[in-house]
Write a structure and sequence with these properties.
The structure holds two protein chains of two kinds. Chain A is an alpha+beta fold. In chain A, strand 28 and strand 29 form a beta hairpin. Among the domains of chain B are: 109 residues, no CATH class; 113 residues, Distorted Sandwich (Cation-dependent Mannose-6-phosphate Receptor, Chain A), CATH 2.70.130.10. Chain B contains four helices and 17 strands. Classes of the chains: A alpha+beta, B alpha+beta. At the A-B interface, helix 7 of A face helix 2 and strand 16 of B. Chain B: One of its GO terms (cellular component) is glucosidase II complex.
Chain lengths: 885, 346
């Protein structure tokens, strides 16, 4: 929703409007060169690591080995813990042996849903140079000198850690005494650091020593000074994927699904930021971060989760594997052909190295393994996967009433109407503008009476106003985030001068959750749900439009340590508020812009402030595929684009695309023309209405998909290779995708297009598989195909809202495969209640199956009228394959 | 002040920004004290100030009576539920080989007569389920239709969905209430099943509206007379009927703003203590026929508007007995929609 620049200029009247630019202002955001630790890590060259394993210190228990690592250049010792975990997963943790003070680790239970369950490691071989461990069918080889770890799945090396020797661990140290700036004589610790650097930069010893480490103890970016009271504390290491040519994941970037090498660009950056009018296809950071990466080839799928919430950069290179090494350690990799390899290099500004290695071997296995760590997407309430109508802003109760009435009079179904920031009393969240929304409960009930819901925005910045009780309450309880000097942090956001509750503190989260009680949030009802925006957090006058890095959080942590978790905790606390207000009966629905690993458990994510342009429609598919791969399956992009006015064709195509994406919400900036679907010219309105109705017919299918995702961590919107892992031509395909494994979707994202080439995967299908087929797609057509062999549940009686369809019958679309068979399932439960209110899945329903549509049946059965009458309630229609199947 | 002027220009800008910001804040605070209706009508309010647009909106609950379902089933015309009287003849059984059949209206396919309204869609043209929600394009005609009015019909997806759409509640013939969590009662809320019949109230309202329209049409003569001597009549609508309105300005208050609407001349917004904005200066008819009168007032001030846009107002003239502004909205930035009641539009 945000439009930082626009909004600032709004306050500054017309003075600044003239400077409004039409794309991201890169000057507002750091490049790697402007970030001290990024520069330090990135300048390291691959080579032999100075770290060796101290074999004498080796301790082995049933599922864990613990051993010290020594930096031979500096004599600093680290400790390595390697755990075997259930489900083909291993954990590699590297910390300082004796840190000056504890280094930040994310509390277990927040991102990790619990202490991961351990699995026995068997010592297979303990030689002079390495130790080989067995984890289920995999081998883990820890080499001593130089230190590296290799993971071998079956007979193939799949993951190598520190194979490039890029491990760099900036231990906590005492700040050197103030020295004349030009020539700092080496004190012992500083000297140690220098030696370390010299070792790591073997080849580059030309620079004078005292210039080697810029920004160790303070940094300045633009006019913002970062005093860095803890000095350098970054950690980094390389992770290679031998045998792989493609890696995926690490949202959020406006990028293709298959990640690119970063040889000629900055590394991919993970640092939650409010980026105004973001650019496409580059590695700049956006609103959220999930440090999880998958590598996939025909034989296996593996990946890592980098459990660190600090600013993180990831370099990617495509190289060839070192076959000599692999033939040495395990007599592996024969043959003459070169083996591809992806080299990745991860570095974070603080915290520890904590890598979860998930060994698959199939795509669905890694999703399950990752879900076992950070949880899966909670089954959304049904209305949340229907159509959402949003705008900045629906101005008042009459406006809401009119939009609601117009949707009905044009017979366009919708489930939720949203209120952006203007609904509040002066941007004080949890309040209402008394003129525009004098009786919010009547308004909410007015739509709820038709089974619909409302959503209001609740952002984490609180207006510093002593008459605003949410602010004063937080202030009096000393719950605000503190500035570097310990004072209440003050920054600029929508309400003007603002402060931010410290969501890192569990007590603050409880306090926040309690604000959603009906008694606290006046004018709210059980039909009102919540939207968290600006929770990166966005601070208009802060460095990179966010918190200063030395902002102080609960438990003595700096924002530097926890930055990427702030928005995660805001959404978590909000979702807990919805549970709390309903005595755990209501399944929460909370939309968030900022996110981290694990955010999938608390609601939906959208891709922030996109633009009403064809390129942004196109990029929504790879962005959502990547979010899905990173566990955030309930995700969507603003239909129509947030900024600018899309033309009718673009808006129509966007609705069609959105109707087959997991979170389906239209949204628009306050400066745009009104564009509710009923305002479109009749031709477009009818097509859009049909697209929305189609979404409603597929709701049982979507609900079932989300149920499977909830149970198994599977993607909802999936790259083709998830279902066809051996089909190499799908590895970089991100303009078409599968829903579950049943529907193939290829949305039209090109202006003027009346057809598209669709790739049909698979070999033993009822159609000619593994090839491209041109498909007509005039404006009223969405290229969607059902896989032969699948059964998709639908409800063909589309009503005004999904709630009103609760007792309606199902239609099963049965697409036969070559053998004339098909299978499928569907799930239903109480569409609103929390899953713990309905654990058994038992219950009764008024729904029934009214129709089976069998597609691909060779011949229409001959049935007399009297026979037909007998089977009337189970009418079987046979059809030839249609475009939809 | 002198000191400030000596400093760099940036400071001055900041001060200006701060003043604007504080004013903005002041008014959002002030908003707290107006908890009542947002629109304060300046012109005199009386019962005849009704505007003829939303006929079905307000009905009196006292006029509601429970529906007697049997009665509505035993209608004078014998026809399946959901079928309009005029179409009743299309829903008679045809006899084929001694069997009672129904002929789908457009596709002409024959289906057993008993399949009519059996909650399963048999005709591809959706004609066999006028009284259930089974067909995708079905239409349901409410059982009670008001005399001399356009027939009220609904998409058949509104049949038995728990919401009363027909004034007689005939669309909720199953009488089944929505689930508990969907049930809401309150003023001005749509009714939920089981439905009350409020057709009498609707009929009464529509009768009153008809009287208002007639009265308005009588008053309209004054407006036509006023325009008799002017040149360029068409500038003021058919026969210059809106000319009289161009001779006056109308005030409309919607806190914190005050509007001054001078049809054909200007629309102004005042917001003490900030500047006055012109919301439109140049009058252009967007539509002036078929009972729709939409006057655009273009070329207002552009400051603070989205780039490339200047303020403009649309005056929608509606039939009413007095000249008055009924509503003023800014649905999108710098575009104002003004509903204006006047006998001239009757």
């Amino acid at each position: 929703m945000a439009a930082t620049t626009i909004r600032l200029s709004y306050y500054l009247c017309c003075l600044l409007l003239i400077v409004q630019v039409h794309s991201v202002n890169r000057d507002n955001f750091k490049t790697c060169d402007q970030s001290g630790f990024c520069k330090r890590h990135r300048s390291m060259q691959p080579g032999n690591s100075p770290y060796i394993v101290l074999m004498d210190s080796l301790k082995i228990s049933s599922s864990q080995i613990s051993v010290q690592l020594l930096n031979t250049k500096t004599n600093v010792r680290l400790v390595l813990d390697l755990y075997g975990l259930q489900g083909n997963t291993a954990r590699v943790k590297i910390n300082e042996l004796e840190p000056l003070k504890p280094r930040y680790e994310i509390p277990v239970g927040d991102v990790l849903i619990g202490e991961p369950k351990q699995q026995d490691l068997k010592v297979l071989d303990k030689g002079a140079g390495s130790i080989t461990l067995g984890l289920e069918d995999n081998k883990i080889v820890v080499s001593y000198s130089p230190f590296r770890i290799d993971f071998i799945a079956g007979e193939e090396p799949v993951v190598s850690i520190n194979a490039q020797g890029l491990l760099k661990f900036e231990h906590f140290r005492k700040k050197p005494e103030a020295q004349p700036e030009e020539q700092a004589p080496a004190n012992p610790i500083e000297g140690e650091e220098k030696k370390e650097e010299e070792g790591e930069k073997k080849e580059e010893e030309k620079k004078p020593d005292n210039e080697e480490e810029p920004g160790l103890w303070e940094e300045t970016y633009k006019s913002f000074h970062d005093p860095k009271p803890n000095g350098p504390a970054s950690v980094g290491i390389d992770v290679s994927f031998p045998g792989f040519e493609n890696v995926y994941g690490i949202p959020e970037h406006a990028e293709s699904m298959a990640l690119k090498t970063t040889k000629d660009t900055d590394p991919y950056r993970l640092f939650n930021l409010d980026v105004f009018e973001y650019e496409l296809y580059n590695p700049m950071a956006l609103y959220g971060s999930v440090p999880v990466m998958w590598a996939h080839n025909e034989k296996s799928t593996v990946g890592i989760y980098w459990n660190n919430a600090a600013e993180t950069w990831i370099d990617i290179r495509s190289t060839t594997a070192d076959k000599n090494f692999f033939s040495k350690i395990a007599d592996l990799v024969k043959g003459n052909t070169e083996m591809a390899q992806m080299d990745t290099h991860w570095f974070s500004e603080s915290g520890v190295v904590d890598i979860f290695v998930m060994l698959g071997p199939r795509p669905k296995d890694v999703f399950k393994q990752y879900a076992a760590l950070t949880g899966s997407t909670e089954l959304p309430p049904l209305f949340a996967i229907a159509y959402h109508q949003c705008r900045w802003n629906y101005n008042d109760q009459d406006d809401v009433k009119n939009v609601d009435a117009n949707m009905d009079s044009f017979d366009i179904p919708y489930d939720v109407i949203w209120l952006d920031i203007e609904h509040t009393n002066g941007k004080r969240y949890f309040t209402w503008d008394a003129h525009k929304f004098p009786s919010s409960k009547d308004m909410i009930n007015g739509v709820a009476v038709k089974g619909r819901k409302m959503v209001t925005i609740v952002d984490p910045h609180l207006k510093r106003d002593d008459n605003y009780n949410v602010y004063t309450d937080a202030k009096n309880r000393d719950m605000m985030v503190k500035g570097g000097g310990g004072e209440e942090y003050e920054g600029w956001c929508w309400p003007g001068s603002s402060s931010w509750p410290d969501f890192i503190n569990p007590e603050v989260r409880n306090w926040w959750a309690s604000k959603f009680q009906y008694s606290e949030y006046g004018g709210s009802t059980p039909d009102l749900y919540i939207w968290n925006d600006m929770n990166e957090p966005s601070v208009f006058n802060g460095p990179e439009i966010t918190f200063h890095k030395d902002v102080q959080h609960y438990g003595g942590t700096e924002n530097r340590d926890v930055h990427n978790l702030y928005g995660f905790y805001v959404q978590k606390a909000t979702a807990e508020g919805i549970l709390m207000r309903s005595n755990n009966e209501q399944r929460p629905f909370v939309l968030t812009r900022a996110f981290f690993a694990g955010s999938q458990r608390f609601g939906a994510v959208w891709t922030g402030d996109n633009m009403g342009e064809w390129s942004h429609l196109k990029v929504s598919n790879p962005m959502l595929l990547t979010l899905n791969l990173a566990g955030i399956t309930f995700s969507g992009a603003d239909v129509g684009g947030f900024f600018r006015n899309p033309d009718h064709e673009l808006q129509t195509r966007w609705y069609q695309a959105g109707s087959f994406q997991p979170f389906f919400r239209a949204h628009a900036h306050i400066d745009t023309k009104r564009r509710e679907p009923f305002l479109l010219p009749e031709e477009n309105m009818k097509i859009v209405r049909e697209a929305i109705r189609k979404r409603y017919t597929y709701l049982p299918f979507w609900y079932t998909l989300f149920y499977h995702g909830f149970r198994s961590g599977e993607t909802v919107m999936s790259p083709l290779w998830v279902t066809y892992p051996e089909d190499k031509s799908t590895f970089e395909m991100d303009d078409e995708y599968l829903l579950g494994s049943s529907l193939l979707v290829k949305p039209i994202t090109e202006q003027g297009s009346v057809g598209t080439s669709v790739y049909f995967p698979g070999k033993d299908e009822s159609y000619a598989g593994s090839q491209n087929t041109y498909v007509n797609a005039p404006l009223d057509k969405i290229p969607v195909f059902q896989r032969g062999g699948s059964i998709v549940p639908r409800k063909m009686r589309v009503r005004r809202s999904s709630s009103l369809m609760a007792s309606d019958p199902f239609t099963l679309i049965i697409c036969l495969d070559k053998q004339g068979e098909a299978s499928g399932d569907f799930f239903k439960n109480n569409i609103l209640q929390s899953s713990n209110a309905d654990p058994s899945g038992k219950g009764s329903t008024k729904e029934w199956v009214e129709k089976l549509i069998i597609v691909g049946y060779p011949k229409l059965p001959q049935v007399s009228i009297s026979q037909l009458m007998a089977i009337h309630s189970l009418y079987i229609t046979a059809m030839i394959v249609t475009a939809e199947c | 002040m002198q000191k400030i002027w000596k400093r760099p220009r940036v400071l001055v800008l900041i001060v200006i920004a701060a003043v604007i910001f504080l004013t903005f804040q002041f008014f959002s605070l002030e908003a707290l004290f107006h908890t009542q209706n947002k629109a304060v009508q300046v012109s005199h309010l009386n019962n005849e100030d009704r505007v003829l647009e939303n006929v079905i909106e307000n009905f009196n609950d006292e006029d509601s009576v429970p529906i007697e379902l049997e009665k509505s089933n035993n209608n004078k015309v014998d026809k399946p539920i959901g079928v309009h009287d005029d179409d009743a003849h299309l829903y008679k059984a045809v006899h084929v080989k001694k069997k009672e059949m129904f002929r789908c209206l457009e596709t002409k396919k024959l289906i057993p007569f008993s399949w009519l309204n059996d909650n399963y869609c048999d005709c591809e043209d959706s004609s066999d389920e006028p009284g259930t929600a089974a067909c995708p394009r079905g239409r349901f005609y409410c059982t009670s239709q008001l005399p001399n009015q356009k027939a009220v019909s609904l998409p058949s997806s509104r049949v038995n969905d728990g919401i009363c759409d027909c004034c007689d509640g005939s669309d909720e013939w199953s009488g089944e209430a929505p689930p508990q969590w969907m049930r809401h009662k309150g003023k001005n809320l749509v009714q939920q099943a089981p439905c009350q019949n409020h057709c009498n109230a609707i009929a009464k309202l529509s009768k009153e509206n008809e009287q208002i329209r007639k009265m308005g049409q009588r008053l309209k003569k004054v407006y036509l007379q006023a325009a008799q001597t002017i040149r360029d009549k068409e500038r003021y609508g058919p026969n210059g009927v809106f000319y009289k309105l161009s001779q006056k300005c109308f005030l409309y208050k919607s806190s914190p703003y005050e509007y001054n609407i001078c049809p054909f001349h200007s629309v102004k917004q005042e917001h003490f203590p900030s500047e006055r904005w012109f919301l439109g200066r140049k009058a252009v008819w967007k539509q002036k026929s078929h009972g729709q009168f939409l006057l655009q007032m273009l070329e207002g001030d552009a400051a603070n508007c989205p780039i490339g846009k200047s303020r403009q107002s649309m005056i929608l003239f509606l039939c009413g007995i007095n000249d008055r502004v009924v509503d003023l909205r800014e649905d999108e930035k710098c575009e104002y929609i003004i509903k204006f009641a006047t006998p001239a539009a009757c």
